[in-house]
Protein 1
Amino acid sequence: MEDDDVRMPGPETRLAMIGRTGSGKTQAALWHLSRSDFDERPWVILDYKGEKLFAKIERAERIDLDEVPDEAGIYLLRVRPDKKKQMTDWFRRAWEHENIGILVDEGYMIEQHDDWFDACLTQGRSKRIQMIVLSQRPVWVSRFVFSEADFFQIFDISHSEDMDILRKYIHDDDQDELDEPLQTYHSFYYDVGRRRLETFGKVDKEAEILAAIDAKLKAIEAEEEHRPVRRAL
């Protein structure tokens, strides 16, 4: 997908991923997740629509809205649209927890003025909260998703007003490239720190991504099984 000179998101960064339904952003998000450090700390997927691709992560652990996990691994939190108050409280506890990864599928489901969601975005670097936020429509999403992003990955977009919003945050001499049509499942990738715009091809195949994730999760389970149990004196 990328060449050796392209920077990828790290443990304290924010990645905004934008694209219409079927553009390839969800599989790309899973690819980024497969390369993250969920073998060292917890990563939580906030799944608003029951995404079938996330359900295929066999070793992912299901959690509820009252849980912010401590152990390394991938956790799947399915959220109903009417649970906005509980979701705000969950972001507060994630902010207090620190050192956690959060993947938000369909970021427009979170209210634009959710203070604790915005706090995770604006203070993510100091609290070591890495975030990947997906959205179909930037016009519906908190502006902090974009103002605090370290990286953007832009797939095919249906509405011109959405691209107009993104242009405010992309400062590159080759910004006109954004007007060029993308091949199927390809994307634009923008590094904010370097002010560098790239065009990316397809990510790995679904089966390959899931296999890479499963191998790391299996290794976590094996390590836990062999961890010595301390006996009370």
Note: The longest helix spans residues 206-225.
Protein 2
Amino acid sequence: MSPRTNNQNQEIKRYKKKLIIEAALLLFSVDGFNATSMQSIANKAKVSKGNLYNYFESKEALLESVLTYGLNECLESFKVQNSKIITETDFKQAVYANFEMIKANKTFWKLYYNLVTQPKVQVFFNKVFAPFLEKYMNMFEAYFRNKGDKTPNATALLLGSTIDGISLGYIIMGEAYPLKEVLEQLIDKFK
């Protein structure tokens, strides 16, 4: 049997790192960041605790990777970097795309809402999410400005806060939440 190639070793490392991140995402979202131990993450990922530290120097570094991984996964379905909202149809599509992103990544968004109020993790949270949230809010602010809104920043913030509330309700209640009806009202009020 011949030794593994460098490419094979790199692929194995990427795979194990992804396993660790996915295990941490699940455990952080269910048990919370503070209650989740590195040992429980190692057990879930089926790696030794020592090996886990070969990939992540600390639980905080792992959390930062989990947040980055989760946000990147979400951005696959919601291309906010190049999005412009010009018409009411664009607005409606952006709102629906936002909720399709949440539906497709419920575990990640459960973690997001779990972490958003925890002061110990705000540094990591802001580092990962601030650029995304800025682009996201600027996109809506530009839409409202183009419509002649006198306070487009405030309107975009109100929309963002409303979307956060709807998202949280959906994450908590799941399919019992009347998402379709609520989104129709949201779009009607802000378009």
Note: The chain has two domains: 6-62, 64-190.
Protein 3
Amino acid sequence: MKHILLFFFLVVAICGSGFALTPSSPENNNLISQVRISNPFPNPASVSATFGYFLPLGVNEARIVIRNLTGHIQVIMPLDVAGNRVVLDISKLRNGIYLYTIEVDNQAVVSKRLVVAR
């Protein structure tokens, strides 16, 4: 159990550091700094999780990616750049801890934790 928790904190530290998937320009960094995402509601969740988000003008594409603790992608949900809320179906996910990341224009912005419990 200690190893799993240590791995989890390592993954959170790496994902939360804002690593870039592609090189970014100063203009893109300004847009990225304005991106916001709420904590999921409810959390822990069982069937679905609702996220509120804000994407500034100039963002071309955005998505939420949910990964398990080993880093395997479980769910990818494209976001409407003109929207502000999305409901993700997580009914097929097993009970456990997941990391969700909002990616904007192929750059990871922030990662947070989602707990699935039934």
Note: The chain has a mean pLDDT of 84.
